[in-house]
């Protein structure tokens, strides 16, 4: 089970407007800057993102079918803004991991409660 689409719409309209100020400095948060596959328009999507040895891992709380995920996969990359730094990433790859091993332990447990098993892996340039 991933979070419902109705919650995603609410977050896009309300919560994300507040989150855009938090993601610049809060640990575990970041902003994915990506371009629309069809429109070419730039979008900014707040996400839960964590550093890995090779790059970053993003928890897909709304599942792998979210538009922003499709945009990043189509472009094979994006820019992640985290801790007030911009990092271009590439090699976007979807991973289904029931054990959520790429996540820190407390986050792993919380995502388990939400039944989140899909992640996006991104490599640093």
TrEMBL record:
| The organism's place on the tree of life at top rank | Bacteria
Task: Please give the Gene3D superfamilies that the UniProt record associates with this protein.
Answer: Electron Transport, Fmn-binding Protein, Chain A (2.30.110.10)
The record ties this protein, via InterPro entries, to: F420H2_quin_Rdtase (IPR004378), Split_barrel_FMN-bd (IPR012349)
Protein name stated in the entry: Nitroreductase family deazaflavin-dependent oxidoreductase
- Tell me which species this is from: Amycolatopsis heterodermiae
